[in-house]
Structure formats: C-alpha cells, structure tokens
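Query structure, 308 tokens:
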C-alpha cells in the first residue's frame, strides 16, 4: 500500500523528519454520511482526508476517476456517493444507474489498480422484506424497487471489479446533516398538530455518525477482511415507533398517528421488514453497536447545537 510522505520541521529538535500519513478519499463528501466524516476528521490526526463532491470528482466518468487517483496518493476510498431518491428512481433510472452502478464499478476498478482499499455502502432495500428474522449477509437478495436493484447491481460491480472491496449494507440512515427522516419529522412536528406515519414497515435506524466511526475503526484494524457486512444501530422498530421516539425526545406536542402502508401509496414499493443481523461486523472488527434510541438522542442533541 502506498503512503503519503510529508516532510515536517521540528523546531524543538531543529531537524526535519518524515511523517507517514495515510490518505483517505471520501466521495459524496457533501451528503449526510460524507459530512459525518468531515466532522470526525479532527479525531484522526494520523490520516489526511480528501473530500470530493461532484464538483471535484465525477465518479461516473472512469477517466476522471483515473486522473484523480493518478494525481493523489490514496490509501483508502470511502464511497459515500449514492442516488437515494427511492420513488424518483422509478422514473430517473439513468441517473440512479450512473451513481449507484457505473460510479461504483469505476471506483472499485481504479482502487484495485492503485492498491487502494475500497469501502462502499449499500442498503436494506436489496431484500424483499418477507423475512421473519434479521437478514444475514448471505441471505437471498430480491429487491422490490428499482432503487434496490441499482444498489444490488452496484454491489455486484464492486466485487467483480475488486474482490477486496468492503461493502457495508445499512438502513434508515439519518444525521444532523442533510435531509433525512429525523429532520423531516422534526420539521413536520413544528408545522402540524398531527402527522401520520407508517406502522407496518419494520427495520433498524442507523445514525450516520456511528456508521462513520465504525468505518474508521475498520480502517484502523490490524487486518482487513473484505466482503459484505451489515450495520445498523441495535433494535428493530417501525417507522411509527421511530417517529414517536423523535416526538418524545424532542418534547413535541404533535400527535403521531399510525397508518398502514396501503394508506400511503408510493411509486416505489418498500420492504415490510428489513432488519439486519450485525454479528459479523461486530465479531470481525470488534465494533460495539449501540442502541438506536441512545444514538437518536445524540443526533437530536447535535441538531439542537447546530441550530444555536
């Protein structure tokens, strides 16, 4: 693996010394997960972070990706870029494919060529939601919408182009940054006296800050274990239960009503059950996964701080 070598001067010792920093490229750097990596950068002085949004790097263009890697020494690439508009993906198919499939294949292939460790994120939507217990990494994948199809195809592209890739499937991602369910609920609870939330879809929320921290622990590990891993915070809940918890933690007076999926039709179907079994990532990388409600409380605290 290549390592950036930075020559620094120490006034105390009156000498120059070599500082071997490892470079981490974060693509999709302006999304909610990318912003969480920006926030934790200060906690990892042993690494040099390179943050790239669309303006800095067109990941769906293989020539652009190769040029970027040729001009930078990159030890780790964390691909946070994704097309996540689930309903719009049913009609904006080319856009979804460009980001969720083509770009993933490009990054995976170039990472292999340049001896860079590649991290990519997938979704619970690769499953059909018919399971009766949490999904394992080896369970059959049968997406129920086009977004899920593109994310599954992205997984295939990643592993075909780079057998050492690390794919982390995650679910119901939220953050104090960007647009997500938690921030939408907070806004609606301020604007309305009552809201209705689906109560017959079950899964596990993922605080993006916890996911970013888990990836950094994987990067810091003594041994890399490639393949597919599942990550979400502990606990299986419905979207309705999630909304009620947001209401309670934020001390809102808004009334949250439970409805069925059939009461709220959407262009794209959703899996009814998409909870993960996370034993594999916990075992292989020693990652401790905290309860979803504890993570939610921290996120709400960060949202309140950002609003000050």
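Result returned for the query:
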């Amino acid at each position: 693996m290549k390592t950036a070598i930075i020559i620094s001067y120490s006034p105390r010792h009156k000498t120059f010394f070599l500082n071997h920093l490892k470079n981490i490229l974060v693509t999709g750097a302006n999304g909610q997960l990318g912003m969480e990596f920006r926030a934790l950068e200060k906690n990892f002085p042993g690494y040099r972070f390179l943050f790239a949004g669309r303006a800095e790097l067109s990941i769906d263009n293989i020539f652009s990706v190769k040029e970027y890697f040729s001009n930078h020494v990159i030890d780790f690439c964390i691909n946070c870029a994704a097309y996540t508009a689930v309903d719009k993906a049913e009609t904006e198919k080319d856009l979804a494919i460009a980001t969720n499939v083509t770009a993933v294949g490009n990054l995976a292939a170039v990472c292999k060529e340049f001896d860079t460790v590649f991290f990519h994120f997938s979704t619970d939507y690769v499953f059909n939601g018919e399971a009766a217990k949490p999904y394992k990494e080896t369970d059959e994948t049968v997406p129920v919408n086009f977004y899920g199809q593109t994310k599954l195809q992205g997984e295939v592209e990643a592993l075909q182009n780079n057998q050492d890739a690390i794919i982390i499937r995650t679910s119901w991602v939220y953050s104090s940054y960007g647009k997500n369910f938690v921030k939408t609920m907070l806004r609606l609870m301020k604007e309305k006296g009552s809201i209705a939330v689906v109560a017959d879809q079950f899964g596990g929320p993922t605080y993006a800050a916890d996911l970013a921290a888990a990836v950094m622990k994987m990067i810091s590990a003594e041994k890399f274990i490639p393949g597919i891993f599942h990550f979400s915070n502990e606990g299986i809940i419905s979207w309705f239960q999630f909304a009620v918890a947001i209401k309670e933690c934020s001390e809102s007076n808004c009334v949250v009503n439970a409805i069925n999926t059939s009461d709220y039709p959407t262009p794209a179907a959703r899996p009814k059950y998409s909870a993960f079994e996370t034993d594999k990532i916990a075992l292989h990388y020693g990652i401790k996964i905290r309860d979803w409600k504890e993570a939610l409380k921290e996120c709400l605290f960060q949202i309140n701080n950002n609003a000050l």
